[in-house]
Amino acid sequence: MGVKIVEQWILAALRNRRFFSLGELNTAIRDALEVLNNKPFQKLEGTRVSLFDAVDKPALRALPTIPYEFARWVQARVAPDYHIEVDKNYYSVPYSLVREYVNVRISEKIVEVFLHGKRVASHVRARHKYGHITEPTHMPKSHRAHMEWTPEKFIDWGKTFGPYTAAVTDQILLRKAHREQAYRSCRGLQSLAKKYGKERMESACAHAVSINACTYRSVKSILEAGIDQVTLDVDTDKPTPLHENVRGATYYGSTFATEKPH
Question: Which 3 state secondary structure label does DSSP give 107?
């Protein structure tokens, strides 16, 4: 109906006029529209202008302060590692949502994750493929503890017990293929140190170094069997030849920093 009115009152009224610019045409249309809007209704009281002022204008709201941004929605399932895949990248959500289906809003700059209409995660959208974008608060406490440690910190911790504990720690960090495995073993050493004390820990590590068995399991077995209390024919105040190969904190600063997570 509105199209028909425009055709009759505006287009038809201007059909025989010639315009030489777009601006001139717009001015003529605006004038004709004003006449139409102020024309009294045939079956109702008032005009289109008065009806707008009474009904529509009071309901109007200010335009959004943020410009409209195009976004698309997809559904994803949370993997066991509490990440979802979006455009070949992996974004974390709270670990309690593992195996849940979530809705994902993807805009130019932001990736937002919703569960039952409630936003549960928000990340800056990654520009490179196959990256892991992880919010530490989404992780279980056990995983968060791994993030708080670095090879440098483990090495420094080992040195507080003595050269042999430092040597065993270094060898564990060197031999494990994945950082998660190395960190787990180093954390195991720390648990043993709390249980058996500084002297026994350093002695057990000295025994492990002497037989070239620098692993968490070896140190644990030595402590449980009491072998650490057997005197070794070595000067425990000096590092063994194996300790001369300790890479130190600076070595791991480059090795683990460039290793891709698995």
Answer: strand
Separation between Cα atoms, residue 211 and residue 47, nearest integer Å = 100
* Number of Cβ within a 10 Å radius of residue 168: 31
pLDDT tens digit sequence for 166-206: 999 999 988 876 666 688 789 899 999 999 999 999 999 99
Band (251; pLDDT cuts 50, 70, 90): low
In angstroms, the Cα distances linking 17 to 12, 31, 48 are: 10, 14, 26
Question: What was the pLDDT predicted at 241?
Answer: 43
Tell the burial category of 242 from Cβ atoms under 10 Å away from its Cβ (0-12, 13-18, 19+). Answer: middle
Rounded CA-CA distance 61/112 in Å is 27
Closest listed residue to residue 74, CA positions, set 53, 88, 57: 88
Q: Are 211 and 225 in contact (CB under 8 A)?
A: no
Residues 99 and 78 sit within 8 Å (Cβ to Cβ): yes
Decide: 202 and 164 in contact? Cβ < 8 Å: yes
Amino acid at 254: S
The neighbouring-strand residues paired with 90 are 85, 132
Is pLDDT above 90 for 211? yes
pTM of the model: 0.45
Indicate the SS3 state at residue 104: strand
Q: Helices then strands (H, E): number in the chain?
A: 11, 7
